[in-house]
Amino acid sequence: MSIAAPSNPKEITLRGIILGILITLVFTAAQVYLGLKVGLTFATSIPAAVISMALLSAFKDATIQENNIVQTIASAAGTLASVIFVLPGLLMIGWWAHVPFWPTFGACAVGGVLGVMYTVPLRRALVSQSDLPYPEGVAAAEVLKVGMASREGAAEGKAGLRAVVWGSLTSALFAAGGAAKLMAAEVAIFFRTGAGATGIGASSSLALIGAGHLMGITVGIAMLAGLIIAWGILVPLMSNLTPLAAGVEVADHALGIWKTQVRMMGAGVIGIAAIITLAGLAKPILGGLKSAMETARKAKLEGASLDRTELDIPIFIVGLVTLLSMVPAGWLLASFLQGGPLASLSVPLVAVGVGYVLVAGIFAAAVCGYMAGLIGSSNSPVSGIAILTILGAALSVGMVGRSVMGPEVAQALIAYALFVTTVVLAVAVIGNDNLQDLKTGQLVNATPWKQQVGLLIGVAAGSCVVPPVLELLNHANGFVGAPNLDSISDQPLAAPQALLISTLAKGVIGGNLQWDLLGYGVLIGLGLVLINFALKKSSNNQYSLPPLGVGLAIYLPSAVITPVVIGAITGYLFDRAVEKKAGGEAAKRIGVLVMSGFIVGESLFNVALAGLIVLSGQGEPLAVATGMGEGTSMTVALIVGTAIVWGLYRWSAKSGQAVHRS
Predict the structure, then answer these.
(1) By C-alpha distance, which of 179, 65, 37 is closest to 622?
(2) Which of 208, 244, 408, 656 could pair with 583 in a Cys bridge, judged by C-beta atoms 3.0 to 4.6 Å apart?
(3) Where are the bilayer-spanning segments (predicted)?
């Protein structure tokens, strides 16, 4: 086959691989912590691209395509951290006391490789021949183009690196203030509503403000709608049906109703929104496969020349790697069952598990990839995919294990279903990231197969980082709902996604799932789907209310969602304020990097704090006695947080003007 390659720019280099892996170590640790604390992760492509450009600018022969490979490696690894939405469930049900390295590494690596392979045939249908907006992929490409194009771009690259550093330092110091008890970790108010109660809370977290800015106003408004539905309608309604008992605090009553009833409705909203998304994807999936097959046949039989920017990993190799990956997948699942109460059923269970990974993984990767194109990888419906996957896995393995049911067998089946779901989720999130990165590559004239190799390198790096960071946090803090027999701190991490996934698995296999509450959530979700459809149609796709965003806000704690909504609104107001001024576009990009720094700084501080907890053996090693009351510490947190956000937004605007003048 002859290949037309008008140019052959430097792309995969040793220095680029090393830099990508080093950035991976930082961002994966940050992602693992953030996901365990609040159940959300963030896109690492843009900050990785900025750091790469700033460091590779020392080399005169650095290219935009080389920087693109660096961000591709780093983004793949950071995305892979989303497996922590499921893995802590194995600790919560008491199956694991510690996080073993090799099974965790294997689940991440096998799932990640399959995620890359499954989405290779979808590139043409969902990227090059699609009008999907890919907001984060396009933004990363713009950052790369600006940073490499001119003297002004070089100035912006330096300002961007300063933005990441400033954001990281201030958020780390702000988090340290909370750890030292100099300010409240959460600002909250709860009150009675007739015989019931409700309220609202907000974590003192710059990372969540940053996440809201990155998600954007559309998702922010959807989450605001979810907050109103959850805490303005459902919690007051359900708590009035279960009146406040004597001696019970108002906050405890409201939070109890939310945890036991409203949250499950949120899961139903997320689940139905994900199913409806899946139903609309059959055509692009089949179209992508058909296009890939036709291109391969055309190149082979007709001797057609393909441009470098259209070269994927050959479809034959994709198929071969996919089939070969089933061998380590089967070995991994068989090892998980070895010596346990399900050992006698290991052959049928492994067969079901491998088949499930193969089939469910394809659908999960396609759905997440499509949603990454639609609303960005940060907002992709990973929660919904995980919910659907655990329901399918629990039903599948439950049917096989029915013949030998008992308490120990039930726990083992739940654990096995969670482990299979971990592999499928790794497939989904890497598929999600792959298409986003390939869009960036398309816009900077990268070679697709080289990016796909970069993704595989990122998968390997991320798979090495996730297990030790997860075990460090398990030993230091532990997780809500887990025995935490060996944890030092008495403040376990919420791990909200893993808690829900393990609850669903126990409910399906134990036969006591709250189907009525899930059903109510499904009805709410269907209503939201109709509202979203009507809104998009009446505004010619200008406005939307993503049902998944609403469902997440019903399902996640208000303490998590409120600062995300605030971040989305303040980010929108900042962008509107600077867009018509000189250097406005540069200011917007610098603002994004400050917010990325907020996430990185706070998350890395808390990973380091976990290490300090383990080394010192103290649950709160930085705490100092201040004598401040709860109200005072909340006020301090509010004032300091507001000053930091306002000050750095103002700095971003001035930096944008300075870049414009340079």
Answers:
(1) 179
(2) 656
(3) 12-34, 40-59, 71-95, 101-120, 214-234, 264-282, 315-337, 349-370, 382-401, 413-432, 453-473, 493-510, 517-535, 555-574, 590-614, 634-652
Query: What does the angle CA 100 – CA 478 – CA 21 come to, to the nearest 5 degrees?
Result: 55
Per-residue pLDDT reduced to its tens digit, 383-400: 667 878 888 898 888 888
Beta bridge partners, 201, equal: 188
* Phi, psi (degrees; rounded to nearest 5) at 90: -70, -25
Structure confidence at residue 5 (pLDDT): 38
Q: Give the model's pLDDT for residue 577.
A: 93
* Residue 245 DSSP symbol: P
Residue type, 618: Q
525: nearest Cα among 502, 483, 553: 553
Question: Do residues 369 and 434 make contact, with C-beta atoms less than 8 angstroms apart?
Answer: yes
Question: Which bin fits 209, alpha (ψ -120 to 50), beta or left (φ > 0)?
Answer: alpha
**What is the rounded distance in angstroms from the CA atom of residue 243 to the CA atom of residue 230?**
18
Cα–Cα dist 49/142, whole Å? 10
Quick: pLDDT tens for 85-108: 899 999 999 999 999 999 999 999
Q: Apex CA 90: angle with CA 88 and CA 92, to 5°?
A: 70
Long-range CB contact pairs, 611-615, < 8 A, 24+: 611/472, 611/476, 613/476, 613/477, 613/488, 613/489, 614/472, 614/475, 614/476, 614/488
- pLDDT tens digits, 203-215: 888 988 988 888 8
According to the model, what pLDDT value does residue 242 have? 83
The pLDDT value given to residue 596: 82
What's the CA gap between 327 and 324, in Å, rounded?
Answer: 6
Report yes or no: 418 and 86 within 8 Å, Cβ to Cβ. yes
Half-sphere exposure of 50 (CA within 13 A, CB side): 25
Reply yes or no on whether the pLDDT at 567 is more than 60.
yes
What pLDDT, on the 0 to 100 scale, is given for residue 419? 95
Helix 263-279 vs helix 496-510: crossing angle, to nearest 10: 90
Q: H helices of 13-119, where?
A: 14-38, 45-56, 64-80, 89-92, 101-119
Strand partners, 450: none
Cα(554)–Cα(264) distance, rounded to whole angstroms?
9
User: What's the pTM?
Assistant: 0.82
Q: How far is CA 613 from CA 319, 485, 489, 491, in A?
A: 46, 15, 7, 11
The H helix count followed by the E strand count for the chain is: 25, 4
For residue 507, give every residue at least 6 positions away whose Cβ sits within 8 Å of its Cβ, in sequence order, or none: 513, 514
Closest CA to 598 of 20, 6, 42, 16: 42
Torsion of CA 295, 296, 298, 300, to 10 degrees: 160
- The mean-pLDDT minimum among 93-102, 108-117, 153-162 falls in 153-162
CA distances from 193 to 188, 232, 260, 559 (A): 16, 10, 19, 20
Residue 374 has pLDDT above 70, yes or no: no
CA angle 346, 352, 353 (to 5 degrees): 80
What are the pLDDT digits (tens) for 619-628? 888 888 777 7
Q: What is the pLDDT of residue 6?
A: 42
Query: For residue 103, what are the CA distances in angstroms to 141, 247, 259, 351, 415?
Result: 36, 46, 31, 18, 13
